[in-house]
Amino acid sequence: MDDMRDVIRVASVFAAGILIGATCGLLMAPMSGAEMRGVVKEKTSDLRKKTLEKAQELKDKAAELTKKAEDMISEEAIEIEEDMEDESK
To answer: Contact 62/11 with Cβ under 8 angstroms?
Structure first.
């Protein structure tokens, strides 16, 4: 669980860094206010879309890893029960 939180934290910091860097780059570019607002709006929209896609990928991966962990735990529990039954005989 902590690993997933770390991944989400890193992804959030990375996305924030991209947003800050892009904003600074745009603000230093020689454009009119209207052009700048259009570019910022477009970049923000693109970043939002990419962030949502990445979040969905992370969610899917987390679900997959959770399922694998549950399967492994179930298998181990079955083996332990079988071992306990063998020892009691």
So the answer is: no
Nearest to 2 by CA among 53, 71, 62: 62
* Domain ranges, residue 43: 2-88
Report the distance separating Cα 63 and Cα 51, nearest Å.
18
pTM for this predicted structure: 0.51
Task: Render each residue's pLDDT in the chain as its tens digit; 89 residues.
Answer: 567 777 788 888 888 888 888 878 777 777 777 887 888 889 889 988 988 898 899 889 999 999 999 999 999 999 888 888 878 76
Contacts (Cβ under 8 Å, ≥6 apart) of 25: none
Nearby residues of 31 by Cβ (< 8 Å), 6 or more positions away: 39
Q: Which two tokens stand for residue 48?
A: 């939002």
- Count: domains in the chain: 1
